[in-house]
Amino acid sequence: MSGSDNGVSGAYPTGPGDWLRCQLHCHTTNSDGDASPAELLDAYTALGFDAVAITDHWHVTRLDSERLISIPGSELSSRSPSPTGEAEALAIGVDRLPDAREPFDSIEAMARWIAGHGGYPILCHPYWSGMEPSEVAGAGSLGAVEVWNGGSQLLQGNGLSSVHWDAASHGGHLMPGIATDDCHTPPGDCGLAWTWVLAAERTAAAVVAGLRAGRCYGSNGPRIEAVRVDRDGVLVRCSSARTVRLRSGPWDGCAAHADGRGDWRGAALRLDEGGLLVEARLQYPEFWRWARVEVEDDRGGVAWGPPFRLPGDEPGLPPGYGA
Questions:
Q1: Closest to 167 (Cα-Cα) out of 190, 140, 188
Q2: Separation of alpha carbons 184 and 182, rounded Å
Q3: CA-based angle 189:244:272, to the nearest 5?
Q4: What Cα–Cα distance (Å) separates residue 275 from each residue in 196, 223, 268, 271?
Q5: What pLDDT digit, counting tens, does each position of 19-71 carry?
Q6: Model confidence, pTM
Q7: Which residues of 175-194 are buried (b: 16+ CB within 10 A; e: fewer)?
Q8: Angstrom distance (rounded) from CA 195 to CA 303
């Protein structure tokens, strides 16, 4: 599907090009993975991916492929006040690493270095790393947050970092949420999640440019087809879904359900032949002026749309909030 078919007014990635299914976090025998680089790319080719960034720890794995877009990258680390003492970030598009392979002093220093060397910095698995949401919110140079880490969820049930992501959004830093495998042992932990990127062409540079422009969203199942903002609220078109939500700050948000039960400031506009949502309308959040779309399918899969600002004046706090 072309980018022009997904166009929206101010709330969703649009532009020329195609949506590419990308894996942005995986490892090989060049760090702590079980598969060779060639074996890893074979696994993702078999699953129908368009692009893969091999992100070995403190190592840039270079491998060209005729079947996949191969993006240079690495997984770097920094010090953190978290209980683990460490935070990690993906350096997508970086093909040369620092001479000294030592942790950066902070997430912000790590993200600044990645961005300053032509890369796109994505914070890895903050929930798995034991980080506080405030630490994420304070790193203004981050390009994205890994909202879903399939490997962490598969092994330990702590792959979802939406609280950390939303804390950054609520602090004014609106950035995409990406979803990844963090693959180490293919095929068992590959194909768990992916990031859709609207790229102007099928090249590594175009994928990085799409990420940097925010033309991306994470998913482990459903698709977001369009998001349109108008005076009446937010219109969402998607693949077959059980629930469509408009997420925002504390005490806020809206939901539309295929069966109508639990609708809150939202309603189904169109169902498919199986009775699932493919179009919904949601009202603006009551108190805040940022939001993001979240689509959940009938198997529990989720797509996390990028946060966006809503029109209107800055509202006050809800009655009693913060008291």
A1: 140
A2: 7
A3: 95
A4: 26, 17, 11, 5
A5: 999 999 999 999 999 999 999 999 999 999 999 999 999 999 999 898 999 99
A6: 0.93
A7: bbbbbbbbbbebeebbbbbb
A8: 9
